[in-house]
């Protein structure tokens, strides 16, 4: 945990360490088909993004660029892209647990890392799934999937499975499901907002 947002040097060092780590659980890629291991809490959130080809194009770009990472889960450096369209890429995010946003502001922050496990790039489906790396408060996966139905409606479906990972976070297991739901709704709201459909 950090009392201030991390410096660029701290983020770079964390990313370098995280690139060397394997996911923190064995069942990697299970979220691709909506599966979850017996040890995990599973969640699903599906929201309408908009309608039509322009909306589909905007939603794909917003998802690829990580524009859902705003608010309390965000990119630690706005000018540094997140490798969401790169299978095997390491994604570092900054979680703001308490306190205001902004450089040099006191609060309670943590850096978390995930590995992009798979990509989906089809005519009517686009997205990715990533899994947690050691040091994350939970272990598990999230799948971000855009779908375009026959009527041209664009949907975002977030599928998750996770369980508390760190010794001090295990007491919070009853709250993991609530946090998953909150996170999914937050990501969906930020992506819909970024898409502007």
TrEMBL record:
InterPro entries in alphabetical order: DUF1990, UCP010260
Q: Which PANTHER family match?
A: UPF0548 PROTEIN
- Origin species: Deinococcus wulumuqiensis
Q: Per its UniProt entry, which superkingdom is the organism in? A: Bacteria
- Where the record annotates domain DUF1990, the positions are 24-189
The name this protein goes by in its record? DUF1990 family protein
Q: One Pfam annotation, family name?
A: DUF1990
């Amino acid at each position: 945990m950090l009392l201030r947002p991390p410096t660029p040097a701290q983020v770079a060092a964390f990313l370098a360490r995280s690139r060397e780590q394997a996911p923190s659980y064995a069942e990697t890629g299970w979220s691709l088909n909506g599966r979850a291991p017996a040890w995990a809490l599973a969640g699903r959130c599906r929201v309408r993004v908009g309608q039509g080809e322009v909306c589909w194009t905007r939603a794909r770009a917003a998802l690829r660029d990580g524009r859902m990472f705003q608010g309390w889960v965000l990119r630690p450096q706005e000018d540094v892209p997140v490798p969401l369209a790169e299978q095997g890429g390491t994604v570092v995010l900054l979680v703001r647990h308490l306190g205001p946003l902004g450089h040099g502001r006191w609060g309670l922050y943590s850096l978390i890392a995930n590995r992009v496990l798979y990509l989906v790039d089809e005519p009517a489906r686009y997205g990715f799934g990533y899994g947690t790396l050691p040091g994350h408060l939970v272990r598990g996966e999230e799948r971000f999937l855009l779908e375009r139905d026959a009527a041209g409606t664009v949907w975002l479906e977030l599928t998750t499975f996770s369980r508390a990972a760190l010794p001090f976070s295990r007491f919070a297991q009853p709250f993991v499901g609530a946090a998953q739901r909150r996170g999914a709704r937050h990501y969906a709201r930020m992506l819909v907002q970024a898409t502007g459909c």
